[in-house]
């Protein structure tokens, strides 16, 4: 784990911020979205692959970026872009696997967090959705560390320690909330979003925005709990996401 942290994080792909703007426009320009993604072909392939995984089990498919955007809709496609961006961590060969490992839970939490935010009067629209989507980014380096240390081959898989912060500290010396806070600070996310990532297991410790941390905590506590294999159901539920997400650029520090 220390070696992963010491290597630092690469910046988020620059096209992510362009796509933030494009996918939140009143009318989404397919040509401009495709052009923005074409600036990073490897990242574009990752977005298309995860889009295909989400559509698996349905009667829909995505062979191009345009297909994926039309089939998923701007909000869910935006979520795919953000998840692919934050999984640009660790070995290139495992990044797609990491994205597939977290997307269903992340989408579930994004939808539930936004619903709770609306019920509790938390503005702005889409901010809780982003917080729910990104709350478990600290899980990614733990998964990489588990691979490097051979835990996955010895029967100590993520199902045994994921979201058990005490067990994570015992195994890795750190938990996913602490690692997630480091990642969020490295990427200069806003204090509110850092709070939600850092303290979604204990929102009473949130110093900047306890309301947002409480929303993500509640979403996890009352989560639907469907498995990552239920891709068709996950895709159906994901279609109930809000029409837009708060742009990540607005959630980053100035």
Walk me through this protein's architecture.
- The protein is mostly helical and 254 residues long.
- It has one domain (9-248): Hypothetical protein af1432, CATH 1.10.3210.
- It contains 15 helices and no strands.
- Helix 5 packs across helix 6, helix 7 packs antiparallel against helix 8 and helix 13 runs parallel beside helix 14 (210-221).
- The two termini are 30 Å apart.
- Mean pLDDT is 82; it is low at 225-241.
Short description:
With 254 residues, the chain is an all-alpha fold. The chain has 15 helices and no strands.
Task: Output the keywords.
about 250 residues; mainly alpha; Hypothetical protein af1432; 15 helices; about 0% strand; globular
Helices, strands, pairings?
Layout lengths: L1 H6 L7 H9 L6 H9 L2 H15 L9 H8 L1 H13 L8 H26 L6 H8 L4 H10 L9 H4 L3 H8 L3 H11 L4 H8 L11 H12 L9 H8 L16
**CATH architecture, please?**
Orthogonal Bundle
Residue share in helices? 55-70%
Structural Rg: 17 Å
Provide the number of structural domains. 1
Structure class: mainly alpha
Chain-averaged pLDDT? 82
Number of helices: 15
CATH superfamily: Hypothetical protein af1432
């Amino acid at each position: 784990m220390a070696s992963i942290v010491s290597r630092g994080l690469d910046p988020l792909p620059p096209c992510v911020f362009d796509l933030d703007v494009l996918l939140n426009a009143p009318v989404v320009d397919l040509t401009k979205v495709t052009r923005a993604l074409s600036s990073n072909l490897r990242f574009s392939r990752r977005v298309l692959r995860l889009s295909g995984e989400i559509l698996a089990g349905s009667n829909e498919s995505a062979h191009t970026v345009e297909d994926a955007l039309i089939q998923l809709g701007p909000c869910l496609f935006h979520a795919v872009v953000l998840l692919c961006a934050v999984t640009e961590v660790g070995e290139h060969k495992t990044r797609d696997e990491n994205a597939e490992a977290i997307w269903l839970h992340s989408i579930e939490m994004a939808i539930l967090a936004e619903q709770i935010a609306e019920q509790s009067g938390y503005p702005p629209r889409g901010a809780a959705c982003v917080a729910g989507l990104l709350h478990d980014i600290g899980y990614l380096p733990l998964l990489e560390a588990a691979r490097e240390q051979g835990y996955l081959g010895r029967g100590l898989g993520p199902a045994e320690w994921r979201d058990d912060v005490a067990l994570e500290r015992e195994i890795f010396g750190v938990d996913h909330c602490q690692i997630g806070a480091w990642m969020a600070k490295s990427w200069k996310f806003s204090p509110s979003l850092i709070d939600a990532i850092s303290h979604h297991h204990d929102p009473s410790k949130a110093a900047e925005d306890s309301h947002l941390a409480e929303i993500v905590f509640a979403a996890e506590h009352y989560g639907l709990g469907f498995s990552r294999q239920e891709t068709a159901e996950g895709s159906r539920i994901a279609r109930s996401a809000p029409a837009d997400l708060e742009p990540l650029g607005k959630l980053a520090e100035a």
